[in-house]
Amino acid sequence: MSAVERLIRYCKIDTQSNPESGTSPSSQKQFDLANVLVEELKEMGIEDAHVDEYCYVYGHLPANTDKNCKRIGFIAHMDTAPDYTGTNVNPRIIENYDGGDIELCPGVVTRVDQFPQMKKLKGMDLVVTDGSTLLGADDKAGIVAIMETIEYLLSHSEVEHGPISIGFTPDEEIGEGPKHFNYEEFGADFAYTMDGGEIEVYSDETFNAAKATVKFQGFSIHPGSAKDKMINASNVAFEFHRLLPEYMRPEHTEGRDGFIHLGKMSGNTDQAELQYILRDHNRTKLEKQIERMKDSVLYLNQIYGEGTVAIEIENSYRNMKEIIDQHPEVARIAKEAIQELGYVVECEAIRGGTDGAELSYHGLPCPNLGTGGGNFHGRYEYCCVQQLEQASQLIRLIVDKTLKETNL
Ligand SMILES: [Zn+2]
C-alpha cells in the first residue's frame, strides 16, 4: 500500500470529534479508526499495540541495536474538526497539478487568489475532496507518515534504530488531545506531533494564554430618581473595555503580536460581566497585559467605590518554547532533518496552542512538524502526495539522527 492509498483509506473513516458531548472520547466513531490502526500495527509486528478506554492508541517499536539511545515518540490525532462534515469523504487525486484553480464539484472551486500558497505546489500530485466534506489530512496525513515509517523500519531490519513510541490521540480538535494522555505508557523522552502543514515548517512556539473574567457590581435605582446615586454596571463595563488598547484586538494583530479579545459580554444596571482571552508568545508581555487590566480595575474602583469591579485571571496554557529550549537537541535534530530533505527550515510561531504545549509542560518536549496538507478544516483541504511521502522520510531521518546524537 502506498502512502496516498493509506491516506485515502483513513480519510474515508469518519472520525469527527464533538465539542458538545462531554464524554471521552467525544465521539464513539473515533474508535473506528483506532481499531483499524491497532490491527494494522499488530500485522506489521508491533505486538503491544492497543487502544485504551479513552480511545488513545499506543504502541512501541523496540530498539534493534545495543547502542544507548533516547526513546523518541511520534504523535498524530485521529479526529477531524467539528467545523465541517467528515461523513462520506470521497477523495480524488490530481496528478501533476497545474498550479491553477481546482473545481472540486460544480460551483465549488479552490481559488488560487484565495489560497496563494497553492502556487508552490505546481507539478505535484494533490489529494482533494469532492467539495462536500473536509478531507481529514489534518491529521490523518500525520498518522500515515508515522505508519509508513514503522512499516519501513520493520521491513528493513538492517536499518539501525533506537526505541520508538507511537501515539494516536482523539479529540485534538476540541482541545482535549492531552486530556487522558498516558505519559507512562507512551514512555518517550521527547516526541514530535506530526500535525502541521508545509513540510519545511518547524514549530516549537505557541502563545501563552490566559482568561480574564471581569465582574461589575452596580447600584440599581429607579432611573427617575437616579441623579448622583445610580451606578450602571453595564456603563462601568464599557468604561473598562475602553481602557484597553484597541490596537491589541485580534483583528489588528498578526505574526508575533499578542492580543486581548473580548469573547463574551452580558449585563444590566445591577450587574455586568466581560470575558476576555489574552494571548502573547512572550510571557512577560502577557503578564503586562494582565497588570494593565488589574490597574484599570483599581482605577475604576477609585471612582465608583471599592467592590464595583473585580477581576479573575486563569492561566490556560504556556508557550512550549520555554521547555523545548531546555532540550536543544530536540529542535536541532528536527531542523537538520528538514534541511536534509532539501528545504530551508521555516520556524513558525503558532498563533494558538497545540497538544505539544501541554505535553511539553508535562515533561515530554514536543514540537510540531509538517505533513504536506493545507487549507484545513473545510472542503478546500488538500494534501500534497510528494510532501506526505517526505513526512515519512523526515521521521526516518529524525530516528536516525537521534541514534547518532546519543552515540557521538
Ligand atoms: Zn490537526
Overview of the molecule:
It is a single chain. The chain has 408 residues and is an alpha+beta fold. The chain folds into 2 domains: 3-206 and 319-406, 3-Layer(aba) Sandwich (Aminopeptidase), CATH 3.40.630.10; 208-317, Alpha-Beta Plaits, CATH 3.30.70. 31% of the residues lie in helices and 23% in strands. The chain contains 10 helices and 18 strands. The chain has helices spanning 3-11, 30-44, 137-155, 183-186, 233-242, 283-304, 321-324, 328-340, 355-361, 385-406; strands at residues 50-51, 57-61, 72-77, 92-94, 102-105, 108-110, 126-128, 164-169, 190-196, 201-205, 208-217, 259-267, 271-280, 309-317, 346-349, 368-370, 373-374, 382-384. It has an 8-stranded mixed beta sheet, sandwiched between helices. A 4-stranded antiparallel beta sheet has the order 4-7-18-17. It has a 4-stranded antiparallel beta sheet with strand order 12-13-11-14, covered by helices on one side. The longest helix has 22 residues, at 283-304. The protein is globular, with a radius of gyration of 24 Å. It starts with a helix and ends with a helix. The protein binds zinc ion (ZN).
